[in-house]
Every structure is written in C-alpha cells, then in structure tokens.
C-alpha cells in the first residue's frame, strides 16, 4: 500500500506479508548504506543495528538516551536548566577519586581528587560517608585518602569490593551518566541524557512528566504500561526508517508494534518470540529449529488446523487469503 492512499485495506489482504515486505526490503537497503559509513563512530545506534535492537525486544538498548522536557520556569531559563542537569547527573566514586588495591596489606586505597570534587560539587565527607555505608566499619580517612581495610578477606572478595566501591553513587540519579542542555525548535530548553531512568525522573517536580521520553521501550512498558510501549515502538521504528530516507507507510510499523505487544508484554519477532509461538506446528517448523518443533508436536500429539498461510503452502492447498477466503456451497435439486 502506498503512503498516499488513505483507503481502508481490502478484506482478505495478507497484511502481515505486505508489512514484512514493506519493512524488510528497505531494511536490506539500509544494511548497504550503513556498510558505506563503516568508519563513522555514531553515538547512538541507527539504521539496521537499531532496527534489530527493536524487533529483538532487547532488555535495554546499547546506548539508552532520554529527552527530559522541563516545566515552564526551567524550560525558559538556561541557567536553571543547567543547574537541574548537573543535579541529576550521576556521580560515582571513580569519577572523583582514584581507587587501587593493596593485596599485600589487604586494603583498598581511595585517593580523592580535589579538582574533580570541586567540579562535581561534592564534599570529601560525603564520599567518606557513602564508602563507609558500603564497606562497613574498617574505613579510615586522612586528608584526601580513604583507606578500606579487609584483614580477613580473600583476594577475590577484595577485588569484588573494589569494583563495588568504584560504582558507589555519591549524588544524582542512578544510570544517568551524562547530561546536556539542548535548545529546542520552540526556543525552550530541555535536557538530553546518556542513560535512562524514567521511574526516578518523573518524580522530579521540575520535570514535565507528560512529555518525558526515552528510547528504552522496555522501560516505558514497565513505567507507563504496554500501550505507551506500543506507541514508542511505532515511533522508534518509523524514526529509524525516516532517518535513512526510506518512505515506509506508518501502518506497517503499527502492525509490527501491535503484533509485538498484543499479549501485554513486548515479544521479539524471532524464534523465542512471535515466530516460535505460532499456532500451527508447520508454521513454527518452517521458520527455525524444524526438528525440535516436529518432535515436540509428535510427543504431544498436536493437530495442525491449517488456518495460516505457511501451513497451506506446505501441504499444497489454497491459502486463506483474498479469493481463497471465499467458500461457495451449491445446493443441487
């Protein structure tokens, strides 16, 4: 169906196959185009890698990003927007200190960097308090050096504790690693972040929770529900295609998103999702892991009602599409 047409689809049209062709064929063009840009380091995956990420229903994207729209007072004031951006950026111990192990003495030495503390707006006492909360009672501070002693610990335990201490959050919101204040087309300021944490940010009184957005579709499903996740999927898939100048009707993207979210959770397209859960035995076997599906069906004595397109093609019958839907009975005499 062309993007110019506003006509409702014909009864009996194989919409799934048309949608698969309409997204799959431009997808191969996208592969070739991405190949030509092999040397460019892109910040966020676009093109085919992003499309695969979406249809595979990954737990989280490779590079999660958020657009945080602000309430009027902050949106029209760059200084206030920057202040908020700094407040929500997550600061961990390894950002303000150098952490090293001393296996001979069985201790961990955290050397604070005064210039970094000043840049991040963090006090040494704050770092000490957070480290003590994680490491327990064997913690000492002298000037800018915090020492964590673990006299009875094994070397593996010391290494684990070191890694844990490096990631101790001192301030900001967890998972938000970087923030940037951006001026929108409407002249208002918003914050773009590397990392995503919807649940925490919608609680912030200065954030416009009705317009906040993340490219992490699974997180949208957890926080706002499956309908919001379906809308996000449509937007993300269409955005990937539009960025490559591929004119695909949005209705194909909508059908794909509907199929992925129809059971109340986001399911991938592949063998562990929709294709592996088809109603017909032959349809499942025709996709991947043929022997596994046939053996499982045989052990459970499953029937195949031959209601789909794939099954009927395999057995050589008319497919239930278009004129194949029509059944004509004739009464004689």
Write the SSE topology.
Elements: H1 15-36, H2 47-55, E1 65-69, H3 72-75, H4 78-88, E2 91-92, H5 93-96, E3 97-102, E4 107-112, H6 114-120, H7 124-135, E5 139-142, E6 145-149, H8 155-166, E7 169-171, E8 178-183, E9 189-194, H9 198-201, E10 213-214, H10 217-224, H11 226-243, H12 250-261, H13 281-287, H14 290-299, H15 309-315
Antiparallel strand pairs: 1-9, 1-10, 2-7, 3-4, 4-6, 5-6, 8-9
Characterization of the model:
The protein is of the alpha+beta class and 333 residues long. The chain folds into 4 domains: 15-61 and 244-261, no CATH class; 65-89 and 175-214; 91-171, Gyrase A, domain 2 (2-Layer Sandwich), CATH 3.30.1360.140; 275-320, Orthogonal Bundle (DNA polymerase, domain 1). Helix content is 44%, strand content 14%. It contains 15 helices and 10 strands. The strands form 3 sheets. It has a 4-stranded antiparallel beta sheet with strand order 8-9-1-10. A 4-stranded antiparallel beta sheet has the order 3-4-6-5. It has a two-stranded antiparallel ribbon with strand order 2-7. A hairpin with a 4-residue loop joins β3 (97-102) and β4. α10 (217-224) packs antiparallel against α11 (226-243).
Keywords:
alpha+beta, Gyrase A, domain 2, 4 domains, four-stranded antiparallel beta sheet, 15 helices
């Amino acid at each position: 169906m062309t993007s110019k047409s506003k006509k409702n689809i014909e009864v009996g049209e194989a919409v799934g196959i048309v949608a698969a062709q309409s997204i799959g064929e431009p997808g191969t063009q996208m592969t070739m185009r991405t190949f030509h840009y092999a040397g460019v380091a892109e910040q966020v995956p676009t093109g085919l890698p992003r499309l695969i990420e979406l249809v595979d229903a990954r737990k989280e994207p490779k590079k999660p990003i958020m657009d945080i729209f602000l309430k009027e007072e902050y949106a029209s004031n760059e200084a206030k927007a920057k202040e908020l951006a700094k407040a929500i950026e997550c600061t961990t111990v390894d950002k303000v200190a150098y952490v090293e192990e001393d296996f001979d003495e069985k201790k961990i030495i955290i050397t604070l960097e005064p210039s970094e503390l000043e840049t991040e707006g963090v006090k040494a006492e704050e770092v000490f308090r957070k480290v003590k909360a994680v490491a327990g009672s064997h913690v000492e501070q002298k000037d800018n050096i915090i020492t964590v002693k673990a006299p009875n610990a094994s070397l593996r335990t010391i290494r684990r504790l070191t890694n844990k201490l490096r990631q101790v959050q001192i301030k900001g919101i967890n998972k938000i690693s970087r923030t940037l204040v951006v001026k929108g087309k409407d002249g208002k300021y918003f914050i773009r972040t590397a990392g995503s944490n919807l649940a925490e940010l919608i609680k912030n009184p200065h954030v416009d929770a009705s317009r906040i957005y993340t490219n992490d579709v699974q997180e949208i499903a957890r926080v706002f529900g499956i309908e919001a996740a379906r809308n996000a999927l449509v937007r993300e898939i269409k955005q990937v295609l539009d960025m490559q100048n591929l004119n695909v009707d949005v209705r194909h993207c909508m059908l794909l998103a509907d199929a992925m979210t129809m059971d109340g959770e986001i399911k991938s397209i592949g063998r562990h999702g929709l294709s592996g859960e088809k109603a017909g035995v032959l349809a499942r076997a025709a996709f991947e892991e043929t022997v596994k599906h046939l053996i499982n069906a045989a052990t459970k004595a499953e029937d195949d009602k031959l209601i789909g397109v794939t099954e009927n093609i395999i057995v050589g019958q008319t497919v239930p599409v278009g004129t194949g839907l029509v059944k004509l009975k004739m009464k004689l005499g």
